[in-house]
Amino acid sequence: MALTIAMLALGLVVAHWVVSEKRYKRVKRRLAEALDRSMLAVPEALVALRGPYIEQYGKGTRLPLTFRSQFGEDMALVQLFGGRRDGFFIEAGANDGLRYSTTYALEALGWDGLLVEPIPALADLCRQRRPHATVINAALGRKGSTGTAKFVVYEQGDYDQSEDRKDLASHLAEANPDFRKPSARGASEIEVKLTTVDALLDEHPRQVDVAVIDVEGGELDLIDGFDLERHKPRVVIIEDHNLMLSDDQRRIIEARGYEQAGTLGFNRFMIHKSETDLLERARALLCLDQVEAI
């Protein structure tokens, strides 16, 4: 698999210069699909923590303690913060509050936070399932963003029989008009409230321990409206499907006082430089203390 990905990445570079745009997009899509297949597994070290952590921390929680993130990000956070029973998070792209949630386990342990989800039906599910979090039905954009914006909603993955619904994803139409996951099917547009992380944190002032950013291609626009130097979230987990193709996210966030401690799946773990203990623990946990991060 690694050789296949390397060959596809080389082909992408070559295609960009010597073949048609159509060919370039096809190679890029194949690389994205290969990355999807190669990064789907939760690391074994984190899988091994599920049972022990539920046994250790699952008593007396305000919600049933389960781990729901896609690549083990929630287990990594529980270990990074030593099973703390209090804290504050913001999760941008909260989906239905459970599916692939990075912050559900934190809320179960006792944390509070903001869940931001633009699709109204999913925001309603968040309100039902995450009673201790504040749910915001809105999209997040660049500095000064207000009013409303067009949002693209599409189906991805398989029909979820347990929830009797299709898995939905979405992104701002203007932020990344060409963004579309390889597995996406169909598309429709809705009008949603548009705001910024800065505006939300002005309304809900707290020291942010963890910021999770998963907005399907609109991450850099969101960061423009999130003053990291002012709010200084201790840990930023940001999705980047171009881990092997672009380092823009990393450079922009590092310029605001952060270091990349490692990755899980498509997610970068960026930790503020002042959090030396968290940085050390994260590098060891993510097995990148002796390996150069992507």
Structure overview:
By secondary structure, the protein is an alpha/beta fold. The protein folds into two domains: 1-38; 43-138 and 197-285, Rossmann fold, CATH 3.40.50. It has twelve helices and eleven strands. The protein has helices at 2-18, 21-38, 44-47, 50-57, 73-80, 104-109, 120-129, 197-203, 219-224, 228-231, 248-254, 276-285, and strands at residues 88-92, 112-116, 133-136, 139-140, 148-160, 165-172, 185-195, 210-213, 235-239, 258-264, 267-272. The strands form two sheets. A seven-stranded mixed β-sheet has the order 3-2-1-8-9-11-10, with helices on both faces. Strands 4-7-5-6 form a four-stranded mixed β-sheet, covered by helices on one side. Strand 5 and strand 6 (165-172) form a beta hairpin. The longest helix is centred in the N-terminal third of the chain and has 18 residues, at 21-38. The protein is globular. Residues 1-8, 12-19, 158-166 and 288-294 have low confidence and may be disordered.
